[in-house]
Amino acid sequence: MIIAANLKTNHTRRSTAEYLDKVERYIETNEIIDRAVVFPPSSALTPSRRTITVGAQNAYHASNGSFTGEIGADQLDEFGIKTILIGHSERRHIIGEGLDVVKRKFDFFANIGYEIFFCVGEPLEIKEAGFDAVMTYINKQIADINLTYENLVLAYEPVWAIGTGKTATSGDILEVHKAIKNIAPKLLLYGGSVKPENTAEILSLEGVDGVLVGTASWHSENYCRLLEESKKVSRSKV
Ligand code: PEP
Fold this sequence. Notes:
Elements (H helix, E strand, L loop, with lengths): L1 E5 L6 H17 L5 E5 L12 E3 L18 H5 L5 E4 L2 H6 L4 H13 L3 E6 L3 H5 L2 H12 L9 E5 L13 H14 L3 E5 L4 H8 L6 E4 L6 H18 L1
Parallel strand pairs: 1-2, 1-8, 2-3, 4-5, 5-6, 6-7, 7-8
The protein binds phosphoenolpyruvate.
Phosphoenolpyruvate binds next to strand 8.
C-alpha cells in the first residue's frame, strides 16, 4: 500500500523537516510496512528519508531555462527528488493546466525516469451525468499518456471529493477503480477527503492500492494515524 501525503501550500521548510522527523520516528518504532510518500511545497523540498519518499508536487517540463517562477529537473536533482505528482485537479482546474501541458509534463518526467503519480478524476457535473460520463472524462485525461510506463502510479481523485469532506462511496470507488484497472493495470490510489476514520474501509476495497491524502495529512499526528490504519488492512490484504 502507498500512503501519500500532499501538503499542498502548507508547511514551511522548518515545519516540513519537523513533520518528516516525527513521521520517520513513528514509522520506525511502529513497524509500519506500507510505503510513505510525502509531497511538500517546493520551498521545502528535501532528500527522501530512509522510510519516506519525498516527491515534488509540481515542476516545469524542462531541466532548466527561462520559465519564471517555475522549478525544473535540475532543481529537483539537487535534492535527489525522483518522484512527481502530475495532473492534480488543483493544477488542472485552479492553475489552468490543460491536457496538453499535463501530457508534456508526463512525457518529460517519464523520459528521465521519474516515478509519476498521475491524478485523474471528474468534476461534479460529470459525476451527476453518470458512470459512462465519468469514464469518458477519465479516458480523455489518460488518452495521451503512456499507460505502460513502468514508474507510473495512478490516483483516482474525484474533484468534488477533494478538500470538501465528501468521500466517494465504496460503490463509486469500486466501480471506477475496476474500470481504470481494466484500461491500465497499474497501482491505483484513491484520493478525496480520506481521513483516519475512513482509511481502513477505503484501503480494504478491491482495486485500491493506497490513498493520496491532502487535508488529513497536514498534521504529522494525523498522517501517522493514517499509516496506523493502513497497517491493519495491509496485513489482511497481502
Ligand atoms: C488531494 O489534494 O489530493 C486530496 C485528496 O485532498 P483532500 O484529502 O483534502 O481531499
